[in-house]
Design brief:
The chain is an alpha/beta fold. It contains five helices and 16 strands. α4 packs across α5. The longest helix has 14 residues. It starts with 27 loop residues before the first strand and ends in an 8-residue tail after the last strand.
Length: 322
């Protein structure tokens, strides 16, 4: 195997400047055969961990929510219990209540810079985490890629300046990842089912992966838990007197109850909790790699899958009319 590249030091959020966003072109690249893994050999963890957490309550607007900032804080505590460090090189929390200064507000500019900070300098064996709790929406997809003719979006606190589409999120934090980097994502917002454009969708009933008609493939190992199917709406709930996203709370309590469950067991536990609380939402699992879900224990910091995709980029098999 080729020698491992030397690790690049990570930059602190305080000094990270970011660069102009570049959309990944609608094209594909063949991955060299020696870079494609045909077996699920786990890659050793490097021990490096980095997290970007975003919680937006939109206070004082007609779109106000109550629990999203709490969601971000609760996820931060869960990550710290699992070996993530709370300092500006390893964890950034953007919230619209109680933010340290304007650098930590969930504006469109800060979120875009946050995406770049999250993937800066990462290499094989690094564990990343991204959590978004807030409003999601949908806008028409003009490219003809999305099966429902819509792009999912997230709304920054200054959403009047523009929403952030799943294409942009995919181009920012999914496509740039090298093989063997693991990114775990929780999207707790309306229309978040495919909120990262990941190509493989896990069917809980048939226990198999289904690939998108027009898949967006990449080399990293990205796994996303989302609060609902695209056509559903996430619930803003009062749980134990603290408002918050139903998906985030169900995720945290399922994990705490059994930190060693396989992915299907974990998804079933999240679904049970949502149902017990009277939510119609179904949790959804999507991934960039079609890994062996049934025999893999969910972990924030272990279980790094190498790249198995032979072609990366956006593959258009069928033009979908908007």
């Amino acid at each position: 195997p080729p020698p491992k590249p030397a690790q690049t030091p990570w930059q602190s959020w305080e000094s990270f400047r970011g660069h102009t966003f570049q959309q990944v072109p609608m094209a594909t690249t063949n991955v060299p055969p020696h870079e494609i893994s045909h077996h699920s050999s786990n890659i050793p963890a490097s021990g490096r961990r980095k997290a970007l957490l975003i919680g937006i309550n939109y206070k004082g607007t007609r779109a106000a929510l109550r629990g999203c900032v709490n969601d971000a804080k609760n996820i931060k505590n869960l990550l710290m219990e699992n070996g993530f460090r709370d300092d500006p090189t390893h964890m950034v929390m953007l919230v619209d209540e109680g933010a340290r200064n304007s650098n930590y507000l969930p504006t469109r500019a800060n979120i875009m810079r946050g995406f770049q900070w999250l993937v800066q300098g990462v290499s094989e064996g690094d564990a990343l985490f991204f959590h978004f709790s807030g409003h999601g929406s949908q806008v028409p997809d003009k490219s003809g890629f999305e099966e429902d003719g819509l792009n999912e979006t997230i709304l920054p606190v200054d959403y009047q300046k523009g929403q952030i589409s799943d294409d942009v999120i995919w181009s920012s934090i999914v496509y740039p990842l090298p093989s063997g980097v693991k990114l775990t994502v929780i999207m707790d917002c309306c229309h978040s089912g495919t909120g990262l454009d990941l190509p493989f969708d896990y069917m809980l009933d048939s226990k198999r992966w289904v690939e998108d008609t027009n898949p967006a493939h990449s080399k990293g190992h990205v796994v996303s838990f989302s609060g609902c199917e695209d056509s559903q709406t996430s619930a803003d709930t009062i749980e134990k007197y603290q408002a918050g996203g139903a998906m985030t709370q169900s995720f945290i309590s399922a994990y705490r109850q059994n930190p060693m469950s396989t992915y299907p067991e974990f998804m079933a536990a999240i679904h049970r909790r949502l149902k017990q609380r009277g939510f119609k939402q179904r949790p959804q699992l999507t991934s960039s790699q079609a890994f062996d879900v049934k025999n893999t224990v969910f972990s924030f910091t272990e279980g790094f899958q190498p790249n198995k995709n032979q072609v990366i980029g956006r593959i258009q098999r069928k033009k979908i009319r908007p």
